[in-house]
Known about the structure:
Shape: globular
CATH topology: Rossmann fold
Number of helices: 5
Helix content: 40-55%
Low-confidence stretches: none
Largest sheet: 5 strands, parallel
CATH superfamily: Response regulator
Strand order of the largest sheet: 2-1-3-4-5
Mean pLDDT: 89
Oligomer: single chain
Strand content: 15-25%
Distance between the termini: 16 Å
CATH class: Alpha Beta
Number of domains: 1
Amino acid sequence: MKVVVIDDEAEIGEILAYLIKKEGLECQSFVSPFEAADAILGSNPGFIICDFKMPGFNGLELFNKVKSHISCPFLILTGEPSTDPEELKAQGIQDVLFKPRDLKRVTQLARNHLLPN
């Protein structure tokens, strides 16, 4: 199983992919939510990390598009301090993390979910 990272800021996606791969996990990174949706629907990811605010559609809209096809955690990563985590969780998002302070936590969560103890 792999981790899928979606962030329209290529640098953030590359940093997360690097940190995740450093943990020994497979990772695929996307800057386009449209390409990510196609990849998610065509595979069986083990963990999804998605930026909230992106051109085209946001992370919640992407989640709603793929949620009936996945059984893995879907996390939102945002730089918007006004984002309400509880509102997103009520709609099915596993967790909401904030840039840049929670970037390392992303890798810990992926590792804990995908690697056996």
